[in-house]
Amino acid sequence: MKFSLISKIRLCSSAKHLQQLHGFLLTTGLHHDNLLICKFIEACSRTGLSDYGYSVFKHKPRPCIYLYNTMIKSLSSLHSSAQDAICVFNNIRASGLSSDSYSFPFALKAATWLLDVNVGNQIHGQVIKSGFVTEIHTAIATVKMYSAGGWVEDARQVFDEMSSSNDVALWNAMAAGYAGARDMDHAMQLFENMPERNVISWTTMISGYVHVNQPNKAIEIFLRMRAEDVKLDEVALLAALSACADLGMLELGYWIHEFIDEHNLYKSVPLHNALIDMYVKSGNIRRALEVFESMEHKNVVTWTTMITGLAFHGLGREALGMFSRMEISGARPNDITFIGVLSACSHVGFVELGHSYFESMSSKYGVVPKIQHYGCMVDLLGRAGCLDEAEDLVKKMPFHTNAALWGSLLAAARLHGNYVLAAKALGCLSVLEPDNSGNYSLLSNTYAGLGRWNEARLVRKTMRSSSVKKLPGGSSIEVNNAVFNFVAGYVSYPDGKRIYEALWGINRQYLHAPCKSEINLWKWRDQH
């Protein structure tokens, strides 16, 4: 009968089934059986009813260590119940029992959820006293706990004590600890020395480089992963798409899109959201819209990415039309959605509509405006020529002003020839961003546009005397899954000789007289 009941417990898939089964256990006296209660708690956890399982556990007199471990495992699976898991773990010793190799990993996982290194340190102390230091699952959980709390050196010490272990999960945990601490040098060193790698090893490195804003490195690892025929999973694809978006790598982005379709990953909403983001940032708004329209299920990220993408490309009316579709669909916008909406209003000059959306954020959707939303409103008012209203909004907003706000005012002042406001904005920006040459250039151009040449020269002179250097222009190009960056005035590029020889040939073919670019080529040839 017991084994029959265990089979029925495993088949439970709803609260109603669990309640009926619990009633049967109570009326038959089987609720005293530790094994059946363990299986019941596991079923509760599996169906998202850990609280119900915990209430059953608390009414169980004299639980065995297996039941304690089952309960701790269930509670440690969620952040919301991690503190309860620690309480159950502490009750093990109070009941006269001893924690075992199953107790510690689950308790350490709960401490990781809580980001409480003090609690984790106490559990680690018990691990040492109990002689489970070399137990692999406990060691992995300890490394993760210390890493999550920011104590990476302690995590490394635990890892080094297990140096004879070739367990890939342990090595992955340590690499993830370094990546989470933004220490990709040590993470890469560990990765290269791994006795064995799995897909998690690779995705840890790709995601880590994306996290520290080194997309080129992320793509390099992704291409190595492909070359070694490692099976690509969703996490790797998401991280690679994020790197492609940062670099504008359409060629590799197209390949990933084809891979997603070929391997029937088209139902993954996060992957398609990442595709939309990649196409938007890489300049192909048409393909972004194609992906969007092909999606059967859309979430708030889907709608928001498309709205902000359209606004970013200057398609304000289309972005506002997309927002109307979002409202009709029943999806609830968030604070990022409204940044896209307000930016769209700015692009098309819809001042009144922008005001309406700004007000409805909190009144209709309960979204409290942040400084970014005020920045969008300042940009909207500034572009429309409402400079006094824009400046007044900056003064009245419930935040300290930042460089972005004063930068918007400076750009608006330049657009409408208001040198008084431009000078005031630069005064604030010179404190907030003393090394930003663009601010000085904007004010100088404002004076020049009004024919006030003396003031324009004075601004340039102030810029030079303050040792503010104008940043050189730059561009990039993707060739064979690699991005090459070019900076004005810099000539020592890889394959530079071949590049300049090609340019030399173009100039000689199409130009009759030497122009500035040809003279520069002569100078380069003399230098090299």
From TrEMBL:
PROSITE patterns in the cross-refs: PPR
* Recorded GO MF terms: RNA binding
Q: Does the keyword Membrane apply?
A: no
UniProt keyword annotations, A-Z: Repeat
Q: Which domain of life is it from?
A: Eukaryota
A GO BP entry: RNA modification
Which InterPro entries has this protein been placed in?
E_motif, PPR_At4g14850-like_plant, PPR_rpt, TPR-like_helical_dom_sf
Where the PPR repeats fall, as residue ranges, is 167-197, 198-232, 268-298, 299-333
Q: Which Gene3D superfamilies match?
A: Tetratricopeptide repeat domain
- Output the NCBIfam families linked to this UniProt entry: PPR (TIGR00756)
- Please give the name of this protein: Pentatricopeptide repeat-containing protein
